[in-house]
Amino acid sequence: MVFDSKCCISAPNNDAAGPSGSGSGSGYSSPDIEASIRGNTALLNICCKKRRGVLVMILSELENQGLSIINTNVIPFTDSCLNITITAKIEEGVLSAVELVKNLKIALRSLS
Description:
Layout: E1 4-9, E2 32-38, E3 41-49, H1 54-64, E4 67-76, E5 81-90, H2 97-111
Antiparallel strand pairs: 1-2, 2-3, 3-5, 4-5
């Protein structure tokens, strides 16, 4: 049986800046996180503010949630944003895309 789940959560942004690069980026603090799960493989796309240690924190959080990282790609999106794409294998338990996104949002908020 193949389990298929997809979730995208992004908070509304009241500042002019955002992931579209329409501003300076200084007001953009809420990450956009999209997760898709097929079987035991998770695909994540994260657009977040560029900060020291953000990638290490994200990878650590995913491993704490029982995922094994298969591939990671990080691309600067604007001067202040990163576009991070991660493919991971779900090793432990059944994790939904909604739970994964929610846990990553909490972890990213704690970094700021």
